[in-house]
Specification:
The structure is a homodimer of 336-residue chains. In chain A, 50% of the residues are buried. In chain A, helix 2 crosses helix 8. The radius of gyration of chain A is 20 Å and the shape is globular. Chain A is α/β, with parallel strands linked by helices. Chain A has nine helices and 15 strands. In chain A, strands 3, 4, 5, 6, 7, 14 and 15 form a seven-stranded mixed β-sheet that branches. A six-stranded parallel β-sheet of chain A has the order 10-9-8-11-12-13, with helices on both faces. Chain A folds into two domains: 152 residues, Alpha-Beta Complex (Quinone Oxidoreductase, Chain A, domain 1), CATH 3.90.180.10; 150 residues, NAD(P)-binding Rossmann-like Domain (Rossmann fold, 3-Layer(aba) Sandwich). Chain A starts with a strand and ends with a strand. The longest helix of chain A is centred in the middle third of the chain and has 13 residues. At the A-B interface, helix 7 and strand 13 of A face helix 7 and strand 13 of B. Strand 13 of chain A pairs antiparallel with strand 13 of chain B, so a sheet runs across the interface.
């Protein structure tokens, strides 16, 4: 076990794509627990598109990360010291310890997880926030129903891969959009989507025709930009557009690209609705139980893209925006 | 009574703002009724923003007006010949006879109206499609409830003026946006909105602060463009944005301006939903009855901007886009 706690702190507000100089690498002593607290050795840090938003000094659903603070991030790890009756040394927990090797907590934001049911890092992916995001977004916001055609962007990603699989479980047709032949093959052959269209292909618009010949009932958007407009143009009557994210826009130095085709909502009497998973905090337990049940029944698959070494955080984080990761992106930061 | 039927037909698909050469003025014999038909002498033609969309050769909620066809428009007038048992000479009816002085119909699209209850032209305004648009848009799509702050653009217009008054009836606060001091004064002093902000003023954004200090629960959009973005930036949690129209964009020769601030839907877990009044055709009778009841109770006011002379149609139509009209824009086309 390392005797130090290595961390990444936010050093500057990025303009556009985060640069190395936006981060500060620091080393501290491992924290110790006060009464009621636990210390967690972090095994995996979750890298999520939403983190880019938290770096901006803008009013949003949660406060921005302050300059000089450890970068906020979801984590899974093991309790190594406890002065809290609810946790004992050796428990595995998910929480928000940020980009560092050790964190401490009063326990209120920790959830015990079971690494014998699924690999520890799954609790940052399919059985964690991305899974819950897909679940609440598709079933509540998207109101998916049997026979719907569900189109999802980022279909090979942490959220999108779950959206399509949950759509199938609900009796809908799942059509994915992903970047590249390999990701599309994975989405169809391993995840069981009915189709997946490669948005990087020269024949992208042509390739969409057959899988979307009956239109789109639910579009689950993780990317924004041109792809949102392409989906809006293909909506059916009373379609639902779920705005989960807009990764194509997060590093913009110019204004966000607004959806030119939004008036198709009028023509089709359709709606576009946004959400963040934190809106459903009261229902996390129910959602997690449902996902774990489906997983144990063999109805859900997920994979993680694991990079190693806390030093690599700035580089690994950028993979989210280039689409280089294949599966939920996590960073292994424990050194033993 | 004129012995001829003067008409405006669509001569060309406009690029941008319609020009005189996009219209053809024609004169025909007055039609005669076949079995089951009625002939209607048109008194007033309704001029509505939606007509601009019907002139484009684009897939929409109804087919475009064909080149050479009489321009589609709502109308009110008097039955002058009837071979249909449901109508007798002297009945007043609303319908879609278009921009002409006489039309005929099989009666299925005609609704009898009572000029002793309200002026005939009101059935093209507050008691007609604009009133129904406001009613269904605000109560069904917008799901207005007591205590909401309802913001509406085009607040002095045919739809917007009704939106604010219905909001008040439902126990909500009505805040209007309109162009110019006179329109704003009318909206507050005569229609009873709590506030109206002049979007043409240099202090527009500053002036919005006080009336919107508790945010926006329902935004009813008739205009699109920058004003839609300004409203999106001020949404409350679970707000509803009703997309009724986008008059600022209808004569664009460049692409429609998409709402840059649409990601605020995500931050606020808000939704944006579009509709056209035709979606509610099964409920027109119920809606019309409700509006007439409120009108008879003195709870609704409306006014029409009446231009005269069918020859003036091309010029009068453009007033919709310059904001020159004050009240529901109608054209009196009968000559007696």
């Amino acid at each position: 076990m390392s005797a130090e706690n290595k961390q990444y702190r936010l050093a500057a507000r990025p303009v556009g794509t985060p640069k190395d100089s936006d981060w500060e690498f620091t080393t501290e002593a491992i924290p110790t627990a006060e009464d009621g607290e636990v210390v967690v050795k972090v095994d995996y840090v979750s890298l999520d598109p939403a983190m880019r938003g938290w770096m901006n000094d803008a009013k949003s659903y949660i406060p921005p990360v302050g300059l000089g603070e450890v970068m906020r991030a979801g984590t899974v790890g093991e309790v190594v010291e406890s002065k809290n009756d609810a946790f004992k040394v050796g428990d595995f927990v998910s929480g928000y310890h940020g980009v560092q090797q050790y964190g401490k907590s009063n326990g209120k934001d920790l959830v015990k997880v079971d690494p014998s049911l699924a690999p520890l890092q799954s609790y940052l992916g399919g059985l964690g926030m991305p899974g819950l995001t897909a679940y609440f977004g598709l079933t509540d916001v998207g109101a998916v129903k049997e026979g719907d055609t569900v189109l999802v962007s980022g279909a090979a990603g942490a959220v999108g891969s779950m959206v399509g699989q949950i759509a199938k479980i609900k009796g809908a047709r799942a059509v994915g959009l992903a970047g590249g032949v390999d990701k599309c093959r994975y989405v169809v052959e391993e995840l069981g989507f009915e189709a997946c269209v490669d948005y990087k292909s020269d024949t992208f618009l042509q390739d969409l025709k057959e899988p979307l010949k009956s239109g789109v009932d639910v579009y689950f958007d993780n990317v924004g930009g041109d792809i949102l407009d392409i989906a809006l143009a293909r909506l059916n009557r009373h379609a639902r557009v779920v705005i989960c994210g807009a990764i194509s826009q997060y590093n913009n130095t110019t204004p966000v690209q607004g959806p030119v085709n939004y008036l198709n909502l009028l023509v089709q009497h359709a709606r576009m609705e946004g959400f963040v998973v934190f809106d459903y905090i009261q229902q996390y337990a129910e959602g997690t139980k449902q996902l774990a049940t489906w997983y144990s029944e063999g109805k859900l698959q997920f994979k993680e893209h694991i990079d190693e070494g806390i030093e690599n955080f700035p580089t690994t984080f950028l993979k989210l925006f280039t689409g280089e990761n294949f599966g939920k992106l996590v960073l292994k930061v424990s050194e033993d």
